Amino acid sequence: LGILVDITERKRAEEDLKKSRERFQLVTRATNDALWEWDAVTGEGWWSEGVQTLFGYSAEEVRTDSEWWRERVHPEDVERIESGILAVIKGNGHHWSDEYRFRRADGSYAHVLDRAHVARDAAGKAIRVMGAIIDITGRKRSDTALRASERRYRTLVEEMNEGLIVTDLREVIEFVNDRICALLGYPREEMVGRTTFEFMARAEDREIVVSKAQLREQGISDRYELAFRRRSGETVWTLVSGTPLVDAGGAVAGTIGIVTDITERKRTEDALRQSEERYALAAAGANDGLWDWDLTKNEVYYSSRWKAMLGYDDAAIGNSPEEWFGRVHHDDLEWLKVTLDGHLAGATAHFEAAHRIRHRDGTLRWMLTRGLAVRDATGRAYRVAGSQTDITERKVTEQQLMHDAFHDALTGLPNRALFMDELVHSVHRAKRRKDYAFAVLYLDVDRFKLVNDSLGHGAGDQMLVALARRLQEAVRPGDRVARLGGDEFAVLLDDVTDGSDATRVAGRIQEALEAPLDLAGREVFSTASIGIALSLTGYDRAEDALRDADLASYRAKAQGRDRCEVFDLGMHARAVARLELETDLRRALERREFGLDYQPIVALESGDIVGFEALLRWRHPHRGLLGPGEFVPVAEDTGLIVPIGRWVLREACRQLCEWRRAFPDRSTLGISVNVSFKQLLRVDLPQHVEQVLAEAELQARRLHLEVTENVIMEHAEAVASVLARLKDLNVRLHMDDFGTGYSSLSNLRRFPVDALKIDRLFVSRMEEAENLEIVRTIIALAHHLGLRVIAEGVETGTQAAQLRALECEYGQGFLYSRPVSAEAAAALLANRSALAP
Ligand code: C2E
Ligand code: CA
Ligand code: CA
């Protein structure tokens, strides 16, 4: 009878062991280590050949029982070692290792490191123990060994572009590569021989290094972060991979550290942490949601707030990226992804994108999502996290502001900025495509100021709104109407075939505007002057096209309103010339280029000189002598006529004073000075006149101010008080160019004028009966109102005789004298004889 025992398990374990022993021996044959094996069941042992080579024993001397080994362990070590290894075997450990002294054949002791592996069966019972003894006596490994391993690592590491530090077990630096020198800013000589501690940025890193060195002695490699201090003082964050440096004898002699600069990554992480803290803070106050995307796991953490912002509670939203992207408005999705990818790829310092997202209630919300990626040593992002802010309200206001910025508040039409934007596109298109042409219409509402002034701003606004609507109705759907400001509008006609298209539209607009408007209970008729610029002119810049259209509208207005003018290059030349004139005019006063000519005014009956009219001349540096017709309108437009007029007044009065001194018997001589409406609109004119009179010591009634009839009628209200105050000074007022304006004679009564000057036009055509009648009527009515009459442009004796017959008091014209210089005028005064019969 026998006892049946199941030894299947044990057989299998033995099988495994055998295999691993074979492997073990194979691997270690090349080494000089002393390998051993001990059967825990039978107590049998085994030694590899290494035990002979390592300790000098002959094959015969080596016995395989454990006693042989124990006899050779140093008496001071044996107890510790035996109990240590037995504790591991009896416990359930698998590894044991320790150092002790082992006696050589020659009686000397070698320092050894013994490492063992305990093999156990399924029940956990120890079956065999296998070990390897290495000689660590020569801890000071040979230089050649170091250099060899160094070289091996160096090439490896240099290729990786990483730093390399080799230290001994006390952390004394034995070698650093160029990368480390560059990273820390020290030359190699200054590092070798010193401990790594001297280069640490933080005290706590010392402890890390010490504990790592202990691990290293046990042959363990690992990775840890260290902060080094550069020579310049900054901190360099590194990731160190520490590997034991093993000498030729197999002993651990120090550490090989592969050093990676992770300062950048640290900085990002710090920034992220800071921003997270910031966001966490902000989240409490500003209602931000937070998200954190683990890119390796592709999982996103969404904060409760993040979910609540979309109308969901915590459980309703999982952690997939789709929870987010799946709700983003499809028009914004592409951009969101591109922006995020860009940041992950390292193209941007921060990730920031505004996008719409669908709320649980079906509405769209605008979210501003911000984030920051965290990167590993190679710069690859492994995490990205950030916040989500609801900016819906801001977006709505922003859109409103955008709209406001590009539209006119009153009419709702696009404004100048938007119009120019579109015009720029049209200009580009016209340059690219031969078959494309556009037209710009510049619209100036005629007499808008009149409505505004007389019916009030409310009515003015109403008028603009109504006109804007009519304009929009008059153009085709694709054409753009804009309000450029004030009473000026523009229309961009897209895709016209030629100029006639544009004029046709202009005609349609003018028709549309024709119908009367009802403003504040009154019927108001409005017209517009329209200027047209065509792309055929060949524009490079939108401003030029608009400017030319403006110029053309200006022409249209000048030609008598409610008209349309197409810009041509001649217009441009004129505009340029005008601009030049304006520039020259600005300098003319200080350069003393102005002068006055004087034309005598005579008593028709006697031919005696009763006074002179001062007429302005400009000695232009390049263009020679210019008459007032060539520059006074520009001077009026620019306001330059005001300072020029002051000069004229002062000079004319000074001249008269001089003549009166030279010819004491001519004390009744008067001086006529032309005054522009721009001067009359200045309330300080009477004060200035008074001052000039005082300077010249001239009686006010010797000064005759000539104001044209049109000015008095058109600006009646504005100039009334100034005229009254001039009258109070006792200055004489003459109505110039009488007959050309629209004033009825009865209107004359309302103005404090002393004399009328009949316009040259009537005098020159007095042979025609009709004109003679007009002149006769004017003179009769003037006399009836107690006004004197001066006839202008008297060129012939016949005219003089006719005027005398009509009892016209005074005459002025080439018949008597052309306008002449002050000296020539003095000569006329000296010559006592009458100028003409
Ligand atoms: P105005 O006040 O009607 O001046 C008379 C213009 O008629 C002068 O032209 C004069 O040379 C011209 N004239 C005089 N007699 C005859 C004649 O028999 N036949 C013809 N065909 N013409 C004659 P001028 O000097 O070219 O002045 C033109 C206008 O310029 C003046 O018209 C006046 O409105 C304006 N003007 C002249 N000087 C001044 C000034 O100092 N200030 C202002 N604001 N305007 C001035
Ligand atoms: Ca005059
Ligand atoms: Ca005149």
Q: In brief, what are we looking at here?
A:
The chain is of the alpha+beta class and 837 residues long. Helices cover 43% and strands 25% of the residues. The site of ligand C2E has 24 residues, from β24, α21 and β28.
Explain what the structure shows.
It is a single chain. The chain has 837 residues and is an alpha+beta fold. Helix 14 (416-432) crosses helix 18 (542-558) and helix 16 (457-474) packs across helix 17. It is elongated. The chain starts with 7 loop residues before the first helix and ends in a 7-residue tail after the last helix. Mean pLDDT is 85; it is low at 19-31 and 140-146. One calcium ion (CA) is lined by residues 613, 674, 706, 736.
Features:
single chain; 837 residues; alpha+beta; binds ligand C2E
Overall shape: it is elongated
State the helical fraction: 40-55%
Per DSSP, the total helix count is: 29
What's the arrangement of strands in the largest beta sheet?
A: 23-24-26-27-28-29-30-31
Number of strands: 31
Radius of gyration: 54 Å
What hetero molecules are bound to the protein chains? ligand C2E, calcium ion
Characterize the largest beta sheet: strand count, sense, and whether it forms a barrel: 8 strands, mixed, barrel
First-residue to last-residue Cα separation: 181 Å
Instruction: Enumerate the spans where pLDDT stays under 50 for 5 or more consecutive residues.
Output: 19-31, 140-146
Task: Briefly note the structural class of the backbone.
Answer: alpha+beta
Mean pLDDT: 85
**Percent of residues in beta strands?**
15-25%
